[in-house]
Amino acid sequence: MRGRDHDPVSFLRKPNNAMSDIQSDVLQEWRESAPYWQQHAATIRRMFAPVTDALVQDAGIVEGHSVLDVAGGPGEPSLTIAQIVAPRGTVVCTDAIDDMVSAAKDQARDRGITNIEFRQCEAESLPFADDTFDEAVSRLGVMFFPDVGAGLREMLRVVKPDGHQRYGSACNIRPGRAGRSRCVSLC
Q: For residues 75 and 108, is the Cβ–Cβ distance under 8 A?
């Protein structure tokens, strides 16, 4: 019987501590996988090159731009974008996992890419001032944000008013200010 207190999806809700446990487990799995991402960086770069190319083209990233890559993992597409925006442009590669950020730093050093910075941070709390970047991208990272809405709002916050956000993801996302964010869908 349906009453005022009936909640048809209550079985889907978990206590906050259960979600925290799941998030901790996921983060631990990413930490453990970081060496493999680094070991196979060249193969992964080639495998995802079409997605990177689509993000760059769709966002209009060119020489001189400042670009934020959120959830950049072991350095791609950040490193490819850094080569595109050089010599005057810059890239900041972020990831929630410190081991991934370390792998990205190693890749930059090995490839001689110097117009890039690295920050360990979560998408939901980016440590940058409002309106800092020309573009913000996330290749396959959005679907792993613990709070997708908060992560996207943060990305919008740090992009200049005339800038762009682009995502490569398994879903089509169109949040935020009209014309400023789009998803390059893989489906």
A: yes
Q: Is the pLDDT of residue 83 over 70?
A: yes
For every residue of the chain, which 3-state class applies, written as one string?
CCCCCCCCCHHHCCCHHHHHHHHHHHHHHHHHHHHHHHHCHHHHHHHCHHHHHHHHHHHCCCCCCEEEECCCCCCCCHHHHHHHHCCCCEEEEEECCHHHHHHHHHHHHHHCCCCEEEEECCHHHCCCCCCCEEEEEEECCHHHCCCHHHHHHHHHHHEEEEEEEEEEECCCCCCCCCCCEEEEECC
Q: Which domains does the chain have, with CATH numbers?
A: 15-185 (3.40.50.150)
pLDDT, residue 10, reads: 38
- Give yes or no for residue 33 having a pLDDT over 50: yes
- For 15-22, what is the mean pLDDT? 53
Q: What pTM does this model have?
A: 0.74
Q: What is the mean pLDDT of the chain?
A: 77
